Amino acid sequence: MRRWLAAMAALISLGATQPPEGVAVDVLMAETPAQKLADYRLFTDAGARRPNGGLTPYGLNTPLFSDYAEKFRLVWLPPGTQAQYTADGVLAFPVGAVLVKTFAYPADLRHPDENIRYVETRLLIHQAAGWVARTYLWNAEQTEAVLKRAGARLEVGFVDGQGRARSVDYAVPNQNQCKECHQLDKAVTPIGPKARNLNGDFVYVEGAENQLAHWTRWGLLSGAPGPAAAPRTVRWDDAAASVDGRARAYLDANCAHCHNPRAVASNSGLFLGVEETRPAALGVGKQPVAAGRGAGNLNVGIDPGHPDTSIIAYRMASREPGVMMPELGRSVIHEEGLALIRQWIAGMPVRNSGLPNPAEGR
Amino acid sequence: MKFATALLAASALAGVAQAGTIRVGPGPDAQERIQTALLDAKPGDTVQLAAGRYELTDGLSLDVNNVTVKGAGPKATVLSFKGQKGAGEGLLITSDQVTVRDFAIEDSRGDGIKSKGADEISFVNVRVEWTGGPKETNGAYGVYPVSSTNVLIDRVVVRGASDAGIYVGQSKNIVVKNSRAEFNVAGIEIENSMNADVFDNVATRNTGGILVFDLPNLPQMGGHSTRLFRNKVVDNDTPNFAPKGNIVAGVPTGTGIMVMANRNVHVFNNDIAGNQSTAVMLVSYTQKFDDKTYNPLPRDIVVRDNKIGKNGWNPQFKGGPMIAQMMGGSLPPVVWDGVTSFAGLSDVVNVRITDGPVLNLNLPAPGQVEQAKPSVAKTIGGTPVAEPDAVVLPKRQADLGG
């Protein structure tokens, strides 16, 4: 019956292209990963520039820095299902949800919409047993992306925002490294799509709209209050926002997936999520525990008023494995992010050479 | 498919591992081939690394339960991370019931082998080494299990770590034995951990031989119940090369055994000699901290029946040389800071030291060396402290021991 309808449709629309098939749900839900990205039919063209029906593009107010790569994000939910709103943490996505993120470099970052080269497309698929992470590496011709499980290094060149020619030793993570960042309580989880980080405008084909409102209107999200009533992470580069808000948003997006009591760096006792309120847990006056040479001969994570003697700024300014933070996902220094964190630390009131006042101690 | 799963489950219940072996040899693309094997391994499998030298460019990681990673011996199978471009360690393990054995990790840019939250983790006959000798730019830890329950470290050799060669942090039920730590800042360190037996090891040529610490502001604090016995803690003489800021940067060069904070630590039947600062040092955590649940004082400490040779002739800590001079040239075998109370804490500080004489600095508070009122006692006979039971590991893990 279905085939016949399709054949009819093809006949009727003589000359037009065949209507694309939908997303390949069975391939997405299979335990064994597909060898090629195209097998999932998330896109209608070989180069993955045209998303299939039902995929919605989205953006984050403050994303993770990934060696200046541009990221194109899409969400797909099984028809008739919604993500449940939650004010804290990542939205509760239904089984079957797929998050698609393509890492790409425009030839010149000053013209981000031109000459874009795709590097890899990562998928987070919510299967019945939990989320799984996969990544597909694009070929030089940009015609095919193939499963890459064990990681890879790629030399990528681009012109940066200041017009300088740059080259990065781009790291495609191995499957375990995907999980190192994407985990809470040892289970794989998305990081970005928190209500607070989605609560901002996105420019859709039909115009700009708040993403929480758009998702609600299109039946992708239920339970969300109006955008004004939902928490909102500021854009890290929004000059109109407070430095504190921007810095905390930056740390949340770039550090808190590991520096979280339920995640990989729990043993450090350094917790950098936006919800954290304890100064010592944020690194203020906190001595390093297992930082080794990452401590850089400095005594505390954050020395208020003094970015030069704060380990957090030191590690952000390094490209040395064993020193640099984050450990994964970057090979160059995020100069603008570092400048923000330095400005934030410099603006903190100095107290007792940066160590907590003992009277406050106990 | 369902039938196969049921069969696997049944055989697992019967204790029969459907063990497979994935073999990897040296050569080009070692990075991808080893990493793929670590991803492909199924519970019960062994990843067998043939003899040879493997040049790695990135960190390796394992996240499958019940896998053994096995080489052809710590001299024959060498994983070199000299060209490492990323990741905080050479090999990262995040799954349970993993055994790594019979290979070497060299020159990782960060830590050597780290395991996080990996229960029943075993390191057997493994060597981790920074081949350029002790340097501040070496990685922090050689073998580094953290946040784990049931840890076995047996016949491990670590050289050159800029923090601790063998480090166990925030873990429970730990055995460290038959191992050798040399040319590290700390040879062996047990930190914020419960129930550790450390015995039959050699800690030599480090800055400090064996440390038992407890630190504030960490998810697991209140370390207790550690036994250090039958270790050879000799000639620890490498000048401290830890990057400043790390807690071990404060370990005086030539320290034998150091207990900082922590509770119920028993030091006995060790051979301690040739350590210029002191044989055994019991001290409080001296830095400021903001943590109401943390106790910075060592308490319920027993030091007995150690064979203590010449130590303490040239103490490398503040006030040490002066005190040594007062004492006729060298410090007695045991130095205790003598802090017995701390504001807001009611725990009784009890120490029982029969390997005298003991130098008691009688400090009024942690680190207040300027106010020391040194006294020497033949012994300090606190009330007896019951020794913790021997650590018992799960049978499968204990059977790996040599």
> Helical residue percent of chain B?
under 10%
Give the number of DSSP strands of chain A.
14
Rounded to an integer, what's the Rg of chain A over CA atoms? 22 Å
Q: Report the sheet with the most strands of chain A, covering strand number, pairing sense and barrel closure.
A: 6 strands, antiparallel
Radius of gyration of chain B: 22 Å
Strand order of the largest sheet of chain B: 1-2-5-8-11-14-17-20-23-26-29-32-35
Fraction of residues in β-strands of chain A: 15-25%
What percent of residues of chain A adopt helix (DSSP H or I)?
10-25%
* Mean pLDDT, all residues of chain A: 90
Stretches of chain A where pLDDT falls below 50 for ≥5 residues? 1-15, 353-362
Low-pLDDT regions of chain B: 1-17
First-residue to last-residue Cα separation of chain A: 75 Å
* Proportion of beta-strand residues of chain B: 35-45%
The helix count of chain A comes to 9
Based on helices, strands and strand pairing, what is the structural class of chain A? alpha+beta
What global shape of chain B is seen? elongated
Structural class of chain B: mainly beta
Topology:
The complex is a heterodimer of chains A (362) and B (402).
Chain A: H1 2-12, H2 25-29, E1 55-58, E2 70-76, E3 83-84, E4 98-106, E5 116-127, E6 130-138, E7 145-147, E8 152-159, E9 165-172, H3 175-181, E10 183-184, E11 187-188, H4 195-198, E12 201-204, E13 207-210, H5 211-217, E14 221-222, H6 243-254, H7 311-316, H8 335-346, H9 358-361
Parallel strand pairs in A: 3-14
Antiparallel strand pairs in A: 1-2, 2-4, 4-5, 5-6, 6-7, 8-9, 10-11, 12-13
Helix pairs in contact in A: 6-8
Chain B: H1 2-13, E1 21-24, H2 30-40, E2 46-49, E3 52-55, E4 60-62, E5 68-70, E6 77-80, E7 89-93, E8 99-101, E9 104-106, E10 111-116, E11 121-124, E12 127-129, E13 143-146, E14 149-154, E15 157-159, E16 164-169, E17 172-177, E18 180-182, E19 186-191, E20 194-199, E21 202-204, E22 208-213, E23 224-229, E24 232-234, E25 255-260, E26 263-268, E27 271-273, E28 278-283, E29 299-304, E30 307-308, H3 320-326, E31 334-336, E32 351-353, E33 358-360, E34 375-377, E35 380-381, H4 395-398
Parallel strand pairs in B: 1-2, 2-5, 3-6, 4-7, 5-8, 6-9, 7-10, 8-11, 9-12, 10-13, 11-14, 12-15, 13-16, 14-17, 15-18, 16-19, 17-20, 18-21, 19-22, 20-23, 21-24, 22-25, 23-26, 24-27, 25-28, 26-29, 27-30, 28-31, 29-32, 31-33
Antiparallel strand pairs in B: 32-35, 33-34
